[in-house]
Amino acid sequence: MGKKVIVIGAGVAGLAAAIRLQHDGYQVEIYEKESLPGGKMNRIETGGYKFDLGPTIVMMPELYREIFELCGRNPDDYIPMERLDPMYRVYYSDIPEEPFDISSDLVELAKTIERISEEDMEGFFLYLNEIYKRFMVAKNSIIQRPFRKSRDFYNVAMLKKALKLKTLDTADHFMSKYIKNERLKQMISFQTLYIGISPFKSPSFYTMIPMLQFLYGVWFIKGGMYTMAQSMEKLFKELGGTILYNKSVQEICIQNRKATGIIVDGQNVSADFVVCNADFPYAMKNLVKDHTAKGKYTDKKIDKMKYSCSCFLLYLGMNRKYEEIEHVHHFIFNEDLRKNLHDIFAGNKLTNASFYVYIASKMDASLTPDGKDGLYILMPVSNLATAKYPWNEETIREYRSYILNTLKKIRGFEHIDQEIVTETCITPLDFESKFNAYNGATFGLMPVLAQSNHMRPQSKAKDCEQLYFTGSSTHPGAGVPIVLLSARITAQELIHDDQGIVYDYSGK
Prior knowledge:
19 strands
């Protein structure tokens, strides 16, 4: 029997790391505080309606498939996917009667770009060309590898590559070099919010997110995103792994700067290695109680770090099908996006906001009762540390009213407030309590330059042996494909340490 690894948390990265280690011969046990797998990739069920709880947009499907292919499985048997075209529909709140369908077919996309702003067509393709070059540098040299030591980044070869990313530019400023039309710029740069940061603060290389959609498409997994979580759980169990649900870990046991196991339900459970998928800031504050093992991540340091935005979500079971609404993904932009984003990150209560609507039942009718649709609505909001207003019934009521009144201006949603039969919501308070997201920050640590790449928490604990971290607050960052990479890095780091393999990345 192989060495024992305990994984704290059955989120996406925890499951993926556990699968990789179990496949490699380790005896892996996952301890999960909730009753279902997936973490924020969970499911809400109410009145016969099934909703993905968190992530909904499938990008870079090869990374989803990789975990199954690694274990000799056919991904289509676990996560059957279908490409969406158009990928999504964009509405602008001042012209709701003129939506734009966004395709990953470059011919169709070009027609849409011309319709929005013909004079920006050349600039759009120049943007794609430039960001693609930066993406290839990041993909091949940065986001798929760890940074254990300073010289892993601060060496001539790596610095030459890093300079090509031109990290000092913001996403908005970078886009403004190529695109002048505000609507088109909004449609592209807004997507840095997928990882919880404003395009006015985000390093410019995060504009690779929309580029990945434009060039490689958006996909839908049958059953919704929760199918991915269920399928990873299934694969892990097939490999012989163990998951224990409703088990809230109180502490990571550390002796002589080595992780030796965990305390759960007051009991000490020993292991050769510990992999922590709990949100890194929460874990360092609450689970790592040995002050030496915390290293630089003291409670004071954790409090001072910058955190992503949070989200307010509505899950609405409706009394009919929305035949007039044709697509799965919809973005509704407020015309004053700059003020909207300023208010989110300044902590102001939102009076005009952009939001997102997901109708998974358009692709899979089994997710709702016959003849009905379910609406998932997400609005980015301030995290709990930033918000200058309380999350109470009044705030929920105001945000709900704003969203529904905005949707009523869109053809097909005119009577939406009268068509709701079931309703659930999630606020930043829920992200904090249910998922241990520090400050309710949905995407973890904000990926500002000072918290990216080698300056982001790494997979291998720097001040404690046999302890590893994975998930959105660790390198390389947030978003499902990226946390899958985080899991790959974490598993590789643990295996290399166990086997005494030392990699020197300097000069490579």
